[in-house]
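Ops channel
N.P.: pipeline sanity check, posting one input/output pair.
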């Protein structure tokens, strides 16, 4: 069986504000139908890597100065974020980013803005999101700003789903959440992967949980990939155990 590659990041360098070199040659691939984890501590460069792919760096005065990024074989690094969404790649930002003054359902509907396939299909997808996130259905008329942290994280993922993505770049879904909710969210990610075929590249500091749900992992340190492999192997690796699994 040959795995189809969706995303290929090849030796990229990223510089902020023309001077600060943050990624120093990062390479990774995301296969179709997989959950790929991007691990590493605070400031290792996980968010920068995701933003390089989704083309969200420009608003932060960041620039890919070397290397290539391709999706389904096409060079994509000069596209706009919304063109990436049209190609099926969407980022769920760290910190959730719901529109606080809109209801949960209105937030979800904003995720469909790039679509041209009419209201019927969008209504169907809203129902699909609710089958994966029953809590969002219960809270659909609530103002998002008044929902819990876990519900806001779910809302952010649900909103991304409304663009019918092929690949979701998910940044620190566990951040600030109680262990039980982290488990709940990762289980939903796994279900979306298995049942809807959505591929994930997920950045996480919580190595423990990420390696339980992912198929493959990359570990970043100071802007370089220092280790990679199947998640099951990384979980058993003595260095990973000592430096990463003890932490979370
Ligand atoms: P975290 O989990 O804290 O988000 P991370 O692994 O995602 O960590 P990044 O956010 O990618 O790391 O940050 C990597 C480095 O780039 C850090 O040293 C950070 O200070 C720096 N950095 C991030 N954004 C900017 C920016 N807009 N301008 C300058 N430096 C930045």
């Amino acid at each position: 069986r040959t795995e189809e590659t969706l995303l290929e990041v090849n030796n990229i360098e990223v510089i902020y504000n023309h001077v600060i070199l943050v990624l120093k040659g990062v390479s990774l691939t995301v296969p179709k139908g997989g959950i790929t984890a991007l691990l590493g501590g605070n400031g290792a460069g996980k968010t920068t890597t995701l933003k390089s792919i989704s083309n969200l760096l420009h608003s932060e005065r960041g620039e890919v100065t070397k290397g290539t990024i391709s999706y389904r074989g096409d060079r994509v690094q000069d596209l706009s974020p919304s063109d990436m969404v049209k190609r099926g790649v969407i980022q769920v930002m760290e910190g959730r980013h719901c529109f606080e003054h809109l209801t949960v359902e209105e937030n979800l509907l904003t995720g469909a803005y790039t679509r041209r396939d009419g209201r019927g299909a969008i209504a169907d997808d809203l129902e699909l999101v609710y089958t994966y996130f029953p809590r969002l259905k219960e809270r659909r008329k609530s103002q998002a700003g008044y929902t819990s942290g876990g519900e806001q994280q779910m809302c952010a993922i649900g909103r991304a789903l409304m663009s019918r993505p092929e690949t979701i770049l998910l940044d620190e879904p566990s951040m600030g959440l109680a262990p039980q909710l982290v488990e709940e969210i990762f289980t939903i990610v796994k279900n979306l992967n298995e049942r809807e075929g959505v591929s994930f590249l997920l950045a996480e500091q919580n190595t423990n949980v990420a390696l339980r749900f992912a198929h493959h992992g990359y570990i970043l340190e100071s802007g370089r990939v220092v280790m990679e492999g199947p998640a099951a192997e990384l979980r058993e690796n003595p260095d990973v155990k000592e430096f990463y699994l003890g932490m979370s």
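N.P.: looks fine end to end. Strands lie at 5-16, 20-31, 35-39, 62-71, 74-75, 89-92, 167-171, 199-204, 216-221, 224-230.
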